[in-house]
Design brief:
single chain, globular, 409 residues, disordered C terminus, 82% helix, mainly alpha
């Protein structure tokens, strides 16, 4: 295999390791906790997911666009900013935890204590990506996966959400140490500068807006259910979506490696044919995965999610439908990203806000099941609008040519 092929394989495996970590953390927490404790843990983990996405958008996405001889200094700056910003946010989370009563407050307090560790460890992935060294990210993230699974597996049944959050966070220390050691040759002797991240117009600010409307809004809406409705709703929705984690690996891989491949196919017609076929394939995989989970015996389901299985299993038809149409929507947005990159932001804004409204309205009318089906409806409308935008897209005739031969592509 060529060096480029090995790098691509390492990138896919690293994404798989990161996704597997998130899946197994939630599965193990569900098995160890009561339904109410897992609901508290889920609320904290949703909050962490939002912060992780914000850091990825503000620091990671701008870092991977860096080129030239200044990559070492840029990586040192990114790591330094992530450490400082996560420490400041950790203090705020600790204050929130002290203000909230009971187990929920203790869980947020624990998240504030470990946030700098987990965000910095994850942020090193983007340093290695910018440095074209994905195998180093894979080594650190594989160690992270092993350590967190081992640490959570030895916890006693009935452990509190606060204890599980602390164990999850502290288990990142070995992977963080290895990641910093692997990064050291690239940043030795380089000076970091945090000021560019604080200036107006920093590229990460645009990426934060796109993340906020595309992903963060739905995460915050789910978190809002726990604040204004009941934490058990968060646990049920989170438990159901956790089981579809492998599909997230496929969606993320399509977004990561699709654009350079599609850019060689020769224009709109060839690109649309390829993405439409991929979308149908992902939709079929999503529907099949959802059907398999729905037919899973309750005994095996409880082995996966513990007490949360009873509530989560009722949402599997809706979540399966959501992931099926998400496959179509992902490929429609991928098509626009290749042919007309500026066309995606308006879709993200309108339909992400619509999905939030549908989620909250669905819960108000039909409870947790209504919220799950509302999310599926929002994803379907977003996919439909994206493909309609693709159909109306005008591409210059010179660019809209037949695909290149397979050997050239």
């Amino acid at each position: 295999m060529s060096r480029r092929g090995l790098a691509a394989a390492a990138s896919v495996l690293d994404q798989a390791a990161s996704s597997a970590t998130n899946i197994l953390v939630l599965v193990l927490a569900a098995r160890l906790s009561s339904a109410s404790a897992f609901a508290d843990f889920s609320m904290v983990y949703v909050a962490f997911s939002v912060l992780l996405g914000l850091n990825m958008a503000y620091v990671g996405q701008s870092l991977v666009l860096e080129k030239g001889d200044g990559l070492g200094a840029a990586c040192r700056s990114a790591a330094g900013f992530t450490a400082a910003a996560s420490a400041a946010v950790g203090v705020l989370l600790a204050v929130v935890g002290l203000a909230l009563p009971g187990a929920t407050g203790q869980a947020f307090l624990a998240l504030g204590a470990v946030l700098p560790l987990v965000l910095l460890q994850d942020g090193l992935r983007y340093c290695f990506s910018a440095l074209r060294a994905p195998e180093r990210a894979l080594a650190a993230d594989a160690l992270r996966l092993l350590c967190v699974v081992a640490a959570l597996a030895v916890q006693p049944e009935g452990a509190s959400a606060g204890r599980l959050v602390l164990v999850w966070g502290l288990s990142a220390l070995p992977a963080l140490a290895v990641g910093l050691w692997l990064l050291r040759p690239y940043v030795r002797g380089r000076r970091g500068d945090l000021r560019p991240y604080l200036r107006r117009g920093h590229l990460g600010q645009r990426f934060v807006v796109e993340f906020a409307v595309g992903n963060g809004s739905s995460q915050l809406a789910v978190l809002g259910l726990g604040v204004f409705a009941t934490p058990l709703a968060v646990g049920a929705l989170r438990g159901a979506t956790t089981l579809f984690g492998p599909l997230n690996v496929l969606f993320n891989s399509a977004n990561a490696f699709g654009p350079p491949v599609l850019g060689r196919l020769g224009g709109k017609r060839a690109t649309v044919r390829a993405t439409a076929a991929l979308g149908l394939l992902l939709a079929a995989v999503g529907a099949g995965w959802g059907t398999a989970l729905y037919l899973l015996p309750d005994r095996l389901g409880r082995e996966l999610l513990g007490d949360t299985w009873a509530a989560a299993s009722a949402l599997l038809p809706a979540t399966g439908a959501q992931y099926a149409v998400m496959g179509l929507g992902t490929c429609a947005l991928l098509t626009l990203r290749v042919l007309a990159p500026k066309a995606t932001l308006s879709l993200q804004v309108v339909f992400s806000l619509l999905s939030v409204g549908l989620l909250l309205g669905g819960y108000a009318v039909w409870g947790v099941a209504g919220a799950a089906w509302a999310l599926a409806a929002g994803s379907a409308l977003k996919a439909l609008a994206a493909w309609l935008r693709v159909a109306r897209l005008r591409v210059p005739a010179a660019q809209d040519r037949e695909p290149l031969p397979a050997s050239a592509a």
